[in-house]
């Protein structure tokens, strides 16, 4: 079998696995009773799948550590990729709307949708506290921690870490644009709170 055929088969399998995971997470998100969390995590899952496809088999540059380590992406690492994007976007959303969002509610929904283990819950909570205390240092710290979490490596190439940092930044901004395009974030929060108060 030719090398190109092998690569094509690996890519097809990777994309199929990512799509299957996306469907599971979207279904779990839609089952949540909190409407803000339901819409938030379902869209996070959709965008994480898109990010995976574009990062692991898209951008071709030396700093793209996704492409470099795609051959190591077993099911566990794919799961961790989804978890990483969910953690990042949840932390950034909590920081953005700290006066309006309840950390406990969002974190419980996050853990439920993505099946967080106890050590992953602690990991998320540490990163959240770091973001709230040291916002400027957060992108670098998050990127290094996330790379270690996903790939189980200590990446020393500063350009690769910068690539990951920029990837997360762009991913959240694009996600935010779509999430608030037709219904503002404040409106989504208000609707969800009203429904909860009414016992919906």
Largest sheet: none
Cα-atom radius of gyration: 17 Å
**How would you spell out the order of helices and strands?**
HHHHHHHHH
Q: Whole-Å distance between the termini?
A: 57 Å
What is the averaged pLDDT score? 92
Q: Your description of this structure?
A:
The protein has helices spanning 3-30, 35-56, 65-69, 75-96, 103-114, 118-133, 138-151, 158-179, 185-197. It is mostly helical. The chain has one domain. Helix 1 crosses helix 4. The chain starts with a helix and ends with a helix.
Topology:
Elements: H1 3-30, H2 35-56, H3 65-69, H4 75-96, H5 103-114, H6 118-133, H7 138-151, H8 158-179, H9 185-197
Helix pairs in contact: 1-2, 1-4, 1-5, 2-4, 2-8, 4-5, 4-6, 4-7, 7-8
Key phrases:
single chain, 200 residues, 77% helix, 0% strand, globular
Brief account:
The chain is mainly α. It is built from nine helices and no strands. The chain has one domain.
